ATP-dependent protease ATPase subunit (Micractinium conductrix), 742 residues
Amino acid sequence: MRGAKSLLGLGRLLAAAEHGGAAAAAPITAAPAALLRGCPGALPACMQQAAGFRGGAPPARAAAAAEPEPVPHASWEESELTSAQLTPRQVVEMLDRNIVGQAAAKKAVANALRNRWRRHKVASPLREEIHPKNMLMIGPTGCGKTEIARRLAKINNAPFVKVEATKFTEVGFHGRDVDQIIRDLVDNAIIMMRQRLRKDMKRAIDEAVEERILTALCGETASQDTKNSFRDLYRSGDLDDRQVDIEVPAAAPRIAAPFGGDGSMQEMVIRVDKIFGGGRGRGERRKMKISEARPLIEEQEAEKYVNAESVTREAINAVEQDGIVFIDEIDKIVTSSEHRYGGDASAEGVQRDLLPIIEGSTVSTKHGNVNTDYILFICSGAFHSCKPSDMLAELQGRLPIRVELKGLTAEDFYKILTEPESNMIKQQQALLGTENVELIFTDAAIREISRVAEEVNTNVDNIGARRLHTILERIVEDVSFDAPEKAKESGSPVVVVIDKEDVTAKVGELLKKQDLWQRGLHTGGSSSGGGGGGDGETQAVAPQHQQQRQPVGNVIEKHVLYRGRGMRLFRVLVRLKVFQLAGIAALAVPINTFLATGDVSGTQVVMASALVVGAAAASSTLWYYSRRYVGELALLPAAAPGGTPRLRFSVLDFWGRREDNDVPLQALVPPLAELPEAATRAALADPLLPIDVEGDRQYFLSVRYGRIEDGATLRALLTGRLPGQALQADGDTGGDGGNGRP
Ligand SMILES: Nc1ncnc2c1ncn2[C@@H]1O[C@H](COP(=O)(O)OP(=O)(O)OP(=O)(O)O)[C@@H](O)[C@H]1O
Ligand SMILES: [Mg+2]
């Protein structure tokens, strides 16, 4: 039965080949590989489709014409439902399995996929005019942008590559240039084509392998009947340990995973490459077990189908017609027009380099030239510290479809935790399950996790659904740590139930941070401003929590805004300075004596004094900067409830130790307040930005080189727009404060 089907499959292949105009009279016994080589018409249907190979009638129909009898189990045509055949609704349904909400983005992506397929149905002169509508996905951190791309890659059968914009640098700079995106896309397409081809041909390959092994077992001259008598045994695996004598390529690579197994794509390609490169020609005969021989023969048979040249050609074709490039974190190469925090000189250059690729140009790869006219580009970014309109105008124009993803709510979090097929709760349960620990979350616990996640996101730092990972990790931390011993002690599976109370107990730390935030920044802001829309939300959550957690009042926590770089080196220098000064002091005595006893030339005196003066100058400069160069700038909660937050400047003291100077927020003179745009930009680009603090010294920050931990708050601080600062501004210049706030 299987043999018959295989023949049928071959027959259809041949029919398709015939239709393509090649090998018209090839006998059915000819090796199919010979037909496949240099004959794209004989490629399996799904490959042709993905490859945008649309010459002549569709192969399925061609096959049907040459093969009148009905084929209930069509081998490869039906085996794979390509994404091009999926309707937009089906694509959304598939995305729904893993991604919660974000309907607009899913819809846009689904339509874009369908449009690729539609375009192929349009007749030629018009088809060439239809270009894909590139897309820009905008949404806050952790709301599912990258996740959509990841899932898209899985359901999409066209060549796909996902890159991060930050990996690239302008041509000529150190780093990867954007053409690499297209090269990666082609590499992916080749891997995909080879894999698909092998999958499609699996049946034919299996048949050939079986025949060769049975022949090796029974002898070249054995009759079909003899072979058939072994066939069932072979298939049941009973012969696996029997030795056979087979021919293997001279440098046969050792093959770990059997064909069609779970070996990674790369691994497979490497194996195939090896065979292409080194395995040609006559091999040697070796005796081995059937179970060992099978994968080797499979490689040899598969090689006949995976012809490097035609696969590459089809892969490039597929890339040009159906390729999809997902560029993540595109906002990271956009510099805000207002501020240049973390701005990078070459960022704009990368945008400029992207233009021709997105608009359509030819990129040369090692496999040949690739035209990017019809490649679909989907870009995505959070755009926290810049706006889409800060992108180069030309780039904006090339991303005409904008989709906004929404921030996630507690309800969404609940769904994320419970609905996706492999949701986070299931993952945790599976992990602990391996240690014989059965983890059970009550529904109330999951609700509480979702609620806390939303609350912390709203009040501390919005990291979207990533917050769920943080919280879950904290909740199972102890169980996870103790699991191996617990399960061993009891000898049977241990059941651990996580209830709402456990959640509350475990996430206390996170909520404390939030308290700090509210007592520090938010109370300051809301008591003065009377609450704008955003603050109102915060307020709604705040009181309930403050009641619960009154006693935490004296916990000192801080929120770091900035960290200076090079502190370690600086500290070493400062410590050396102490020795230097000691050295000078020690030198003073002999120099003095020397001078007193005379007998010394003028040059020697000059040199000695220069040494002393130079060393003293260097030391005092170091001393000057060490107590001013900020190693860490942080916000601290108000000293008393209802007060305004404080700032902590951490610098090095005389001995090179850390010195924390806490000052009231109002003492800082905002260096960038009301500066014109150009001046702000210049100030931020300076290596050191001086900051005056009333009643204290002047400090130096290096926005340009330092590490910005919380850019938004730092910016607000430097421009005098933090709530606590505004209080002071209100007092000082009434009109001004009134202007700035609603
Ligand atoms: N809508 C969602 N449905 C299900 N899971 C989600 C959703 N949004 C985010 N997640 C989960 O949160 C994690 C982070 O999401 P993702 O990587 O997509 O964030 P992002 O939007 O790309 O954020 P960023 O702008 O920071 O890159 C993912 O691992 C995913 O499991
Ligand atoms: Mg992302």
Notes: The longest strand covers residues 646-652.
